Model the fold of this input.
Amino acid sequence: GMSIVAFVFFLFAASPAFAGGFGPWTFGMSADQIRSVKAQGPYRAFSNGGLETYNAEFGGKAQNAQFYFKDGHLWRIAIRVYEGVDLTQASQSWAYTYKALVSLYGRIVTPNLAGETLQALADSAKSVVAGGGKAQMAPVSQPNGEFVFSSFNSIAQEGVKTYMVTVNYDEPSP
Done:
């Protein structure tokens, strides 16, 4: 009867997914509230005032998640799927990230990339990044309360090129 419908509605209303965020973390949380999510800890502070953990689950495995704050409140969660010096490994991580995003959100757009297969798309992304560019992708249908997109790029520091594949969960602009 009515009570079951009300209970199901309550379950959905209580679900943090609608608040926006990633996993157990929601936008607007303070650093202390993030640290209180012990199952995904330990957390470490880094130089820009953010936090990070290596126990965020994405695509079926533990990944590095970085938490960014504005006025003491969480506004971005960046899942670092790959960070290293191997471009081939980075492009494999990009393909893995693509598959994970498809399984979570359905169709993905890959602006400025060409290819009929995932391998061809990954090769396209690899050549964009090899040329100093940034390969991005995002779900066509964005989830409620967040903006999700992925970037694959490189940074050069002291002559060493580091490649990064990141999935950003951003609080939508008002």
Summary: The two ends are 39 Å apart (CA to CA). The chain is about 30% helix and 40% strand.
